[in-house]
Each structure stands twice: as C-alpha cells, then as structure tokens.
Amino acid sequence: MKNRPIWIRHASQMVTLAGSSAAPLAGKRMSELGLLENGSLWLEDGLIQMVGTTDEVAAVYQERLGEAEVIDAAGKLVTPGLVDPHTHLVYAGSREHEFAMRLNGATYMEIMNSGGGIHATTRATREASHETLFKESLQRLDQFLLHGVTTVEAKSGYGLTLEAELKQLEVAKALHEHHPVDLISTFMGAHAVPPEYRECPDAFVDYCVDVMIPEVAKRRLAEFNDVFCERGVFTPAQSRRILQAGIKHGLLPKIHADEIEPYEGAELAAEVGAVSADHLLRASDTGIVKMAEAGVIAVLLPGTAFFLMAASADGRKMIDAGVPVALSTDCNPGSSPTVAMPLIMNLGCLKMGMTPAEVLAAATINAAHAIKRGHEIGSLEAGKKADITLFNVPNYMALQYRYGVNHVHTVIKAGVKVVEGGVRL
Ligand SMILES: N=CN[C@@H](CCC(=O)O)C(=O)O
Ligand SMILES: [Zn+2]
What we know:
Keywords: Cytoplasm, Histidine metabolism, Hydrolase, Iron, Metal-binding, Zinc
Oligomer: single chain
Low-confidence stretches: none
Subcellular location: Cytoplasm
InterPro entries: Amidohydro-rel (IPR006680), HutI (IPR005920), Metal-dep_hydrolase_composite (IPR011059), Metal_Hydrolase (IPR032466)
Bound molecules: N-(iminomethyl)-L-glutamic acid, zinc ion
Helix content: 25-40%
Domain Amidohydrolase-related: 77-416
Largest sheet: 9 strands, mixed
C-alpha cells in the first residue's frame, strides 16, 4: 500500500544544503547551509518532491493538501537526516573495565598490546552467533535513529578470519534489510594483527590480500576497504598493499590514519586516492596539504579524542587548508562507545575550532560524500531520499549551544515517520 504524502510546514529554520550533491563542501562553502525560514517539504514515494517556503509548497500542491499527513515544524529546526560515515557498529560484548584501566593511567595501545582492546572484542565477536551479533547491534542502531541518524557506515574488523569477517558483514547486511537506518559496509580485516599471526604479521597481510579481500568483493558484502595504519598495527607499506588489493577488487580505500602517532597516514591516503582518511589527530601539515590536493575527505572523530583523553584533530586547520571535513561517532566498544552524533557536532565546535554551520555540513552532506552517497542523501533537494530530522530547537546555532541533550523530535526515513516526540514508532 502506498504511504500518504507528508507535508512538513512552518519550520522555524530549514537547513537545505542545496547545491552540494556533486562534490563535498570545502573551505568557505562548508558554511553555506542554504537556510530557509518558514520552510516546507513535500515528501512522497520515499523522496523529497519539493523544497520551499510553506506558501510556495502549498501553492504547488494546493489540490492535494488534504491527502497529506501534516507535520507542523513551528519552533523546530529541520535538517537532512544525519549521516555517520565511520562506525564499528557490529560487535559483541563491552569493555567498560578497560575504561576504568585507562582512568587509572593505562594507555589504549598498552591495553591492546597486552591482549585486550580490539583483541578482546575480536574474541567476543568470533564466539558470538549471528543472532547475538544482530541483536546487540540492533540496539545500537535504534539508538542511532533516536539521535537523528538515518544512514551509518559499518566496518567489519572484529573477526580477523574470513569466516568471522563474513559473519560480521552478513549481520550488517541483515540489519540494513531489517532496520530503517541504511548501512553501508566497509571491510576492515586489517584492523589488528590477530594473535595467531603475531610472529609473522606479513603473512596476515598476505591473508588479507590473497584470501579475504577477493572473497568479500566476490560476495559483494562491502563497498569500502579500510586499514588501521598505526605504529605497532599496520605499517604504511603494509597498509598500501592492503588498500591497493582492495582497489584491484573494486573496494574503495579508506584509512584509519595518524590516530596515536604521526605515521604518514594522511600522505598515504592522498597517494592511493582514498575516499576518506579518518582520525588524523596527529596528521602532518604536509599530509593535510596532500589530502586537500587529492580531494580526500577528512572524517574527524572528536568523540574518540575526548574519550581517549587526547588532543583533538585540528579541524579548523584542515578546513582552512581546503580539506572537506566530515564528522562521525566512530561508534565502537573501545575508543568511542557512543551513537550521539549531535554530541559529536558539539565537540566539533568545542574541541576542533569548527563553527556551528561547518559541523552541520560535516555531519550531513560531507558525511554522505565520505560514503559515496552525496547524490542521494545529505541535503534537502528535490529527488533526494526523504531522510529528514526535526530537532526541538528553533535554529542550528541553538542545536550546538544547548549541548548534551538529545533534541531530536521527529525522524523520517525514506518518507516514513519512524521517530516522533523522541520515541521510536
Ligand atoms: N583505532 C582503531 N579502531 C577503532 C577502535 C576499535 C576498538 O578499540 O575496538 C577506532 O577507530 O577508534
Ligand atoms: Zn574506527
């Protein structure tokens, strides 16, 4: 049965980001939100049919106004559904004990090198059944939706064997099919060197390159290929091999770069033409310039820096250097166990020198471009998917100013209302 059209009207402020579908916004263009006062949208067949002022939309649809379900957005901010372009959504278990260890002075890498961290979640994820993984990840996905997020990227990387990596990717696929939030999958077999390869890490790289990447690509279980390029994990040379193998099999490159130490990850991202380089807390100035030249999107994760008690990436410097910046939660059980994209935007302002306008562009259209979906989501334009979030604040400045509260009121996914009054329907 066909859903009724939805007519959103009288929005106090609407962020359209019109004209941003072809390429990510960079430099001063990151502040061009395409604001509309008394904004209105006509949604039908899962798509945005018209964007304009309430009077303009009413004039075009005057014969059909009675058919529509009306959403009165007076007093509210209307934005594109938020997009999270970097998550480790599918995993089993929890690591709050490691948080306590870090509060007592242990570092993230020390915990990982002593068999905890990513290794602990890998053990739990290998042991978990498809059903358990699905159930645990589903709860997080519901929470994403309640925080206004309508699309998430989801990485594998807690299996580290072909079988367990495929299990994670298959759970992501099942969640995508089952849940209103869309999932875009990334293969990240090169997330850590598993203990069985500790003495011969290059043999694990061979396994990624020769076995896992070709099989994942053949089964079409991922669109992107990611690697944790960090001292003590994968070297730039190993990372290059992994990313090039992905490219050969049609998986687009992404990279966890320069998170803990400067390690020429940003430079490598530019060299291989990565869609995005993520983290970048310790990226070099040369790396930033190279990313700008190569058009690599910086996916910044201020929640991770906050939770690891580290200095944040310099978002301001990257925007001023012409790098398109996107924001993400990095949702994972170790360095950022959160789904709160609005809080991530707040941290973008408070910790990375970004403006309230820039963080909104970074969490919508630039995030969409970071997962190659800029043509279908991330802005409010006729023909795009009807993914919309309504916040209980009158304007985008207030969304950043009234921090630490979930202001999401209504979420519409592909033209269907899925959250109302902050409650999942
Ligand atoms: N840094 C590597 N990977 C994740 C953390 C994974 C974990 O600790 O479980 C990240 O992006 O922060
Ligand atoms: Zn990550």
